[in-house]
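Notes from the 1:1 (GR / supervisor)

We went over the backlog. Supervisor wanted to see one worked example end to end before approving the batch request, so GR pasted a single chain during the call. The sequence is below; no edits were made to it. Supervisor asked that the structure be written out right there so they could see what the output format looks like.
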Amino acid sequence: MAHFAKLKNNIVEKIEVVSNGIATNEQAGIDFLNNLYGTNNIWKQTSYNGNIRKNFAGIGYSYDQTRDAFIPPKPFNSWTLDEDTCLWEAPVAYPDDGQIYRWNETDQQWEVLA
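Structure output shown during the call:
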């Protein structure tokens, strides 16, 4: 199955699934969806395995035309975008000690969840 993200102002509004038999290429999938809905919307193909446009699109993700990538919403102001993965990274690496943490933006550190 092929997955397509509907964009409005480069923000993902909706994800649709189209049969591979119909979406033999990206344009065929786009044409099918616009014919189905009687629209001329902007659609971009996306994939769960990240082979297309870095990340699987989600509602609220942005589409960056320069990077040809879907980027999730920025979770915290201090986080920066990894240019290779197009995912946000904390300024401090997530601890690798088996515990579960959450980010504390005020203190700029990971806190153990009780």
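Supervisor's comment: The mean pLDDT is 96.
Batch request approved.
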